[in-house]
Specification:
F-box domain-containing protein; Leu-rich_rpt; seven-stranded parallel beta sheet; LRR_dom_sf; alpha/beta; 175 residues; Leucine-rich repeat, LRR (right-handed beta-alpha superhelix)
């Protein structure tokens, strides 16, 4: 049996086992593979080092998981607002402006993003896993909106015992 005769779902399952660079190269095999890869939703964790790569990946693929380096700025984040998983840890240029677009992310790591404040964190209550460790501008004011998170890391944030009472539904809490 030829691979082309397989269901697109089976081809996608096989492609999910490929490394990211192998998946991207598979686009060159034929038009069917190119179409499947363009329209498929991929669980590969994509590391973005600059704006040019970000623009290419966002327009050519549908990836769920991104690790962004500190060169990524607020204006780039709008392109990624519907993604599943982000790791922005130590991204020094990320501010409240971009965090406002990330409220529907499933997993979000904003650890050590020093410019993030209560203003945007209030909007992250729908995140399943949220890491705000080392974000010293986070206070009790925004923490009360995070009670629906499943996993929450507030280590080294500027919070008091007052806000902890709002987190009774959080399953895993790091303080």
């Amino acid at each position: 049996m030829e691979l082309i005769n397989l269901s697109n779902y089976i081809i996608c399952d096989v492609f999910n086992f490929l490394k990211l660079n192998e998946l991207i190269r598979m686009r060159q095999v034929n038009s069917l593979f190119k179409q499947i890869i363009k329209n498929g939703y991929w669980n590969h964790f994509v590391i973005i080092k600059n704006e040019q790569i970000l623009n290419y990946v966002v327009h050519k693929f549908k990836f769920f998981k991104f690790r962004l380096y500190e060169k990524i700025t607020d204006k780039n984040i709008k392109l990624l607002s519907n993604c599943h998983t982000f790791d922005f840890s130590c991204c020094t240029k990320i501010t409240d402006e971009s965090v406002k677009f990330l409220g529907n992310c499933h997993t979000l790591n904003l650890s050590h993003c020093k410019k993030i404040t209560d203003e945007s964190v209030k909007l992250l209550g729908n995140c399943n896993k949220l890491n705000l460790s080392g974000c010293s501008k986070i206070t009790d004011e925004s923490v009360k909106f995070l009670g629906n998170c499943h996993t929450l890391n507030l280590f080294c944030c500027n919070i008091t015992n007052k806000s902890v009472k709002f987190l009774k539904n959080v399953i895993t809490l790091h303080l």
